[in-house]
Amino acid sequence: LNKKNLVTALDLYKKGAFDRALPLLQKVSHAEKNNVAAFYFLGLTQHALGRWEDAQKSLIRVLRLKPGWFDALFALSACLTAGQEWADALKINGQALQQQPNHAGILSQRAMIFLSMRQEAEGLKCAEKALKIDPNDKKAWLNKGACLMALERYVDAIPCFENAIKRDSGYALAYRNLAGAYMEYGRAQGRMAEMYEKAINAFDKALSLNPDDAVGFTNRASLKMHLGFQEDGLGDYQKSLKLNPYQPAAHSDYILGMHY
Asked: In the Cβ-directed half-sphere of 57, how many Cα atoms lie within 13 Å?
């Protein structure tokens, strides 16, 4: 029965049916305390569902059963990053990097961790190294662009996000970041009218691909309000707060927009 449940759960996982895979994986891991595959995919499933702490526990269990396993280190670093535990994420990422120093995915992940720790220059080096290894790594292009944005090199960031989109035309996060780059470049260069129109178009594309992106709606709302489209901007703030009510800045901007 456990083997059948595991096979069924893996099939559901591959299809993206994480909520259905989760209880089956929990059953198998509870019944078989040393089943590496069950705990590994349980961790990945919990990560996909945003249950970072549970995912970390499952993957730590995997590494106790199979010390130093690269895939588990990679996955655990991703969970720690998602949970904003940057120092631990960097440590685990480093252990994986020691095993495979020319792994583009690990280097790209390291770039994101450094960026989150406000070490943008180090992040940029990692992203560029990842792209030398694999020029088609869309996440590396995204992370390189994000590092350049943090360094206020907006004109250099724009083609990075465009390159990410060339690798994946459905990459919503790249469109959202591209919109941000257009906005900042427009402000810096005094080309707001031209760049803001491009930014709106990029936001529209991002939100058509991911209509549950609260941050995307907040950012587009701010831009629309700046351009004088108050009613449309307030509408975006409403959508954002409906998706995620716990946004103090968005909430205050929405209230101010209603009364001024």
From this structure: 7
pLDDT digits (tens, 9 = 90+) for 17-74: 999 999 999 999 999 999 999 999 999 999 999 899 999 999 999 999 999 999 999 9
As a three-state string, the secondary structure of 87-153 is HHHHHHHHHHHHHCCCCHHHHHHHHHHHHHCCCHHHHHHHHHHHHHHCCCCHHHHHHHHHHHHHCCC
pTM of the model: 0.86
118: its two tokens: 């406000």
In the Cβ-directed half-sphere of 136, how many Cα atoms lie within 13 Å? 3
